[in-house]
Amino acid sequence: MQAPGGPEEDTSGGFKYGGWVTPYFDEVGGEVMEKQMKPADLLLGRKTLDIFASYWPEHADVWPGINDVTKYVVSATVKKSDWKNSVFLKGLADIKKLKNSAGSDIQVHGSGELIQLLLKNDLVDELWLKIHPVTLGKGKKLFGTGTIPAAFTLTESLVTPVGVIIANYRRAGKVETGTIGV
After folding, report:
1. In whole angstroms, what is the distance from residue 164 CA to residue 55 CA?
2. Fewest beta carbons less than 10 Å away: which of 119, 122, 135, 162?
3. pTM of the model as a whole
4. Comparing C-alpha atoms, which of 19, 77, 13 is closest to residue 50?
């Protein structure tokens, strides 16, 4: 999940495959991304805020509404941003309060450490996964240590002509177990 957009996006840990999504981006994937980039408030980690705030204010034509939605940022070190509509949260308690409040949908893009926190604390209602026909060997992981067991139901899926599997899952309770063949 690290640095899909470009070579210099996130080189932390010596990651050298930035921009790995580009060869797999086609018209079908672009249409799905447009749908998923509908105006919705965003929940971001500090590192993703840094990346997004340096790029999206000048490229709003690609993601209409990105500068107008509320960007909730979870950070222990940064307390303000020049990016319009940025609101800072202190941690898990603030995230839970936000999740339980009335308002628009909230999406998380990137933000690997934040996603780990959300998965660990059962705060993910829906997953939008894009599985690409490539292995990178190293880099940031989506499902790391601390992810709780959880069941999801497939709500939508497709395979693009270049082989990307796009699957949307909605939270569906606890993991069920059984025995095969019985």
Report:
1. 25
2. 135
3. 0.87
4. 77
